[in-house]
Amino acid sequence: MTDASIDPGLFRQALAGFPSGVTVVTTLGDDGRMVGFTASAFSSLSLDPPLVLVCPALTSSTYPHLVRRQRFAIHILAAGQQAIAMAFASKGTDKVAALDWRESELGNPILPGAACVIECTLWRDYEGGDHAIVVGAVQRIDHADRSVLLYHRGAMADHPPIAEAA
């Protein structure tokens, strides 16, 4: 149900003004190949227990695999990984076939070079309009000290390193 008083273009423009990190969510498909999507709708949710949320479109070809497998990896992309973000943002079944990845000990496809990888099991799954709200229980974190990729006003840019406080 859409509120006719809210112009979709204006709504999209307003939300584009909020900078966010760029994440890629991966899981394995039924055939054992990596599937995934690019998501800017990602957030921490809880410290106790450690929970995060990510919001795939209901039309995402990855979403059913994520629900069936009950586990996934969220990659916070590092500066310079725009090509990876664009590959996962595209449509099609072979969109990421040429990308390098390895399977983690927890059974998730892991991409090299991310600033952080958060591996999760599916904790809850809710409806959220034309998207799902997927809550992941954090099982493992692999954090690297790298600059990150940001998305703002329809464009991606590398975030410069921030100097440590003295």
TrEMBL record:
Residues 15-158 form the Flavin reductase like domain. It holds the Pfam family Flavin_Reduct. It comes from the Bacteria. InterPro entries: Flavin_Rdtase-like_dom, NADH-dep_flavin_reductase, Split_barrel_FMN-bd. The keyword Oxidoreductase applies. The keyword Oxidoreductase applies. GO terms for molecular function: FMN binding; riboflavin reductase (NADPH) activity. Keywords: Oxidoreductase. Belongs to the non-flavoprotein flavin reductase family. This is Flavin reductase. It comes from Sphingomonas carotinifaciens.
